[in-house]
């Protein structure tokens, strides 16, 4: 019996540890997203900003993309905050719907920007891949919840939100490269655009695999103890 109690306690501690790690990670993502929104607002707050150099004639597409992205980043965080609140299920459902609509607006703006962009093909393809990655992950998430597969829905929406934050990750990567004297060539920009969502998804998948392995190992160790 002592071994059983110890095993149960260890499972509880492991579960709590995973929960704390999850909260810390989502807080970090929140800081990343809010920091990006603040930088974008300052960057495009005035039409006199140098940031409009290549967007002034296409600012309608840009504003559409930014407006949808702002709502998507904010409501994405709200979605994760309310997914386990039983009393907030209506808020979770309706904010999720608005999140989808906002991100579709952002994707619409992105499509316009890509179609009218003078950037090299490698960069436009990288931007297109980011948009498609969000549409695929969010689409699977929507299909899962419509079939009542809650856990699958959560997994896919985590992936979709990681893609949602791709512009914030790209901004950090670009600033890091420039800060270390690396010239942002079209090829490098394209690589960073791909990496801004591929790498977070790979890290997330690895983290999920490690967490699943550890969770499975703890009960086995508890069961091996003498009762």
Helix and strand arrangement:
Layout: H1 2-44, H2 59-82, H3 89-115, H4 121-146, H5 150-164, H6 166-179, H7 186-224
Helix pairs in contact: 1-2, 1-6, 1-7, 2-3, 3-4, 4-5, 4-7, 5-7, 6-7
Number of helices: 7
Poorly predicted segments: 1-6
Largest sheet: none
Task: Give the helices and strands as they follow along the chain.
Answer: HHHHHHH
Percent strand: under 5%
Topology, number of strands:
0
Overall mean confidence score, pLDDT: 81
Structural class by sheet pairing and helices: mainly alpha
- Using only C-alpha atoms, the radius of gyration works out to 21 Å
Terminal residue distance: 5 Å
Helix amount: over 70%
Give the overall silhouette.
Answer: globular
Quick summary of this structure?
The chain has 227 residues and is mostly helical.
Relevant terms:
disordered N terminus, 227 residues, mainly alpha
Descriptive overview:
The chain has 227 residues and is an all-alpha fold. Helix content is 83%, strand content 0%. It has helices spanning 2-44, 59-82, 89-115, 121-146, 150-164, 166-179, 186-224. Mean pLDDT is 81; it is low at 1-6.
